[in-house]
Design brief:
Length: about 300
Amino acid sequence: MATETDTNVATPAPASKRAKPAKTAAAPRRAAPRVAPKAAEATLARPLSGDQFIALFKLIKGANSVELKLSVPLTGHRATIKSIGLDPVEAQPRQAFFFDTPDLALNKAGVVVRARRIQGGDADTVIKLRPVDPSTIDPDLRRSAAFKVEVDVMPGGFVCSASFKGVCTGKEVLDVTSGTMPLRKLFSKEQRAFFTAHAPAGITMDKLVILGPTFLLKAKHQPKDFDRPIVVEMWLYPDGARVLEVSTKCLPKEAFEFGGQFKNYLAAKGIVLGTDQSAKTKNSLEYFSARLESVPPLARPAGK
C-alpha cells in the first residue's frame, strides 16, 4: 500500500456573427465545475520498489504513528460500506474549512491550515506540514502532546507529515468564517509559531482566505472480522463529486506486518487497491480556490 499526493473553454464566434450584448448587468463569471469521475474499472497500484521500501522504513522509524488508507473508486462506494458492515447512521457530520492564499501558496509550500466543525458544538484545528523528514524536526517540538509525526501509506506511495493540533469551539469557527473574529485566534501560540516558521515569506494569517466548507461524514467502525477499528470518511463536494476513504492506524513497529493484514482484509472484502487515490485536501483547495475567481475581491472572505 502507499500517497495523498479540473475547465471548459468556449471558442468565440467571429466578430461579424456575434449577437449584440443585451443591455443588462453582466452575470459574475463562474468557475467551471469539475467533472465527476466516470465509472471505470480501477487500475491496480504497483508494489513499492526496493528503494521506496527503504525510504518508507526510514520515515516510519521516526514517526509517532502510521495511517494505512485508500480511496475507493466511485463505483465501489456502496459495496465497500456494505462489505465491512458499516451502518451509515454511525457517521458523524463535519465541516472542514481550509485557509490559504487565492493562488494556494501555502499548499505549494506543503503547509495546510484547517479548522473543522464537529457535530455537538466541538471543533478542532491543525497546522500541518508535508512532506517532512522526521530527523529534521526540533526535539523540543516533538515533546508537545499536541504535535505528531505520522506516515500516511496508500496504494502506490506514502508521505510523512507533521501536525500541530488544537481545539476550539464550533462557534469560534463560525465567528472566523463570518468575519467577526480574526483567524489567528483559532490557533494556539505554539501553532502560530509553527505556521510562521514554515509558511512562505511574507504570508501571514491575515492574508489567507477561506476555502470551504467541505461537508463530510466520518464513522469509526469496528468490524467483526478485523481486530482493529476502521475509519470511513465520505467527503461531499458542492459540485456532486465525492471521495470515500477507508483507513486504520498502527504503531510504527507493527506497520509492515499490520499493513499486510489490512491489505488481505480489504482484498477479502473485494476492495481494490487502485492507482487513483483522490486527495481530499487537494480537491477541496482546488475547488474553492477556483470559485474565488467569480467573486469580487472585496467580497472574498478573509481571515482577518
